[in-house]
Amino acid sequence: MGSLEQVNGESNPMAAFDVKKDTPTNKTQEGFDLENQKQKKPGWRIFLSYVGPGFLVSMCYIDPGNLETDLQAGAKDGFELLWVILFGMIFALIIQSLAANLGVCTGKHLSELCKAEYPIFVKYCLWLLAEAAVIAADIPEVIGTAFALNILFHIPVWAGVLLTGFSTLLLIGLQRYGIRKLELLVASMVCIMATCFFAEMAFVKPPATDLLKGLFIPKLSGQSATGDAIALLGALIMPHNLFLHSALVLSRKIPHTVRGIKEASRSFLIETGFALFMTLLINIAVTSVSATVCSDPSLSDQCNNVTLNSASFLLQNVLKKSSSTIYGIALLASGQSSSITCTYAGQFIMQIIVISWILGLGIICANIYYLSTSFVRWMIHSTLPKAATVSVAIIVFPMMVVYVASVIYLMWRKDTVVTYIDTTKNDSAVQSGTEDGEDAIVPYREDLADIPLPE
Length: 455
Description:
Family: Belongs to the NRAMP (TC 2.A.55) family.
Shape: globular
CATH superfamily of the domain at 43-294 and 302-353: Amino acid/polyamine transporter I
Pfam families: Nramp (PF01566)
Structural class: mainly alpha
Region (Disordered): 1-30
Subcellular location: Membrane
Transmembrane segments: 44-62, 82-100, 121-139, 151-172, 184-204, 229-248, 268-291, 352-370, 390-412
């Protein structure tokens, strides 16, 4: 994105920060306060202060879309394609750690950097692709949650879709009480999923030898193995996760010194690695359960067309009612939590371009159409005397004009508050790479997508 200043032959991440100028005395008193507080804490407490973002982003790798591809791969190819999941998660860890480091080192998330660095045509194309990725990921998540509600409570799928949308918005409201509440909720759902699918594995008892061979010996010998491998790999591609991860790390108060940045990056890497390791085990469990159950020749017809919904009946027929209930709980946790994270990621992606005018134009068009057609229809079919109808029209139409003018004003007005000022260009300490610049004070970001984050 932006070039990093070189200090003694090494890159200086501080060059990308918004550095607040101050006197040396104030730096001594304030600049090291956060650093000293971190140093006084035990190492495990420092690490726990960074735990959370990795679990939020990990949910996208065990959403209902991933679960369905795991079920289909296990049903058709057995344990043969487990290595695809393993290699895919390794690459996911590398990319997610880079996204986290981007936020830590620059003080901006990916959407802000794309908006600042790319020309307008590229920004619009990138925004459209990212929004398409969010929509494509969110559809199976919502439908999967509706299937889970149908399995557990026999709620119709259409009603389950409405309940999922409502509950997603309700649970995202937890962020008003701090982002950690939402992270704790998602982390608990990851644990629920792990417990449920490991319980499924205890039921079916997959052969350990076949599982290890599929995990570490790459091969594509089945008739549909190549297509299933591509589907598994494609299900693990989550571009919107990069926008989310780079923003979530900014919710932590990081000591913005070289030592603090390195410690934060290392902690985020360990935390993300653990969260993605949990998702790897869950994906392996789903594929192994499907492969073991479908190894029975009498179930070949059912296994050839296994889906999220039919998998519950398949497990219920083989492993009785309890296993089907466990599967429904796990699917509910997967769909609900991944819907939350996908919606959350979309809020940051919206910052790639200035879309207030697009939203405002949509509101104006919808309101003008609804208000004009409804009011004209009322005037035509009104039972009031003509004089009364004309009097009402004289009052209502100017009010409609004022309303539309107000929306237009809100759409085109410019923000007067500057949320990020890059002062490094005028800071000789940072540009020269002196010790003062290296340990300079950096203000805490509080403007992320207008979302209240913990103070």
